[in-house]
# Entry
Amino acid sequence: MISTRKYNKYKGFVASRLLTAFGEQRERYASAAEFQKCAGIAPVTERSGQKSWVHWRWQCSAFLRQTLVEWAAETISRSFWAGTYYRQQRDKGSSHQAAVRALAFKWTRILFRCWKTKTPYDESTYLNALRRHGSPLLEEMARAA
# Structure
């Protein structure tokens, strides 16, 4: 377990990396999907004949991808829905790393929207959006509570 002082220093370090990742030019990325591809969070699916496989995106910023994955891992114990989503992925048979990458993919869409609209993240706003869309994650969260 890391001390509170060390965690706050680490949190500030990751926050500055995230700010650098997104930058100041909000018109740089047209969509969250575009940002996810640039960041390397969006997986690549290849198909040949009847076979298909999914792998990491090789042409991307490894620094940016690692920043997003590390940050997502930190949110598992700090955000109720993120922890539930991570456990849901693990229950489906995903490895720890695959579950964290899936969580990073989800978080990237949320962060992108906050960045684009200059709105701070609010967990209750996100939970209300899940409710409006009838997300199955809410049922999982109800069972976990």
Notes: The chain has one domain: 4-144. Residues 4-144 form one domain. The chain has a mean pLDDT of 83. The chain has seven helices and two strands.
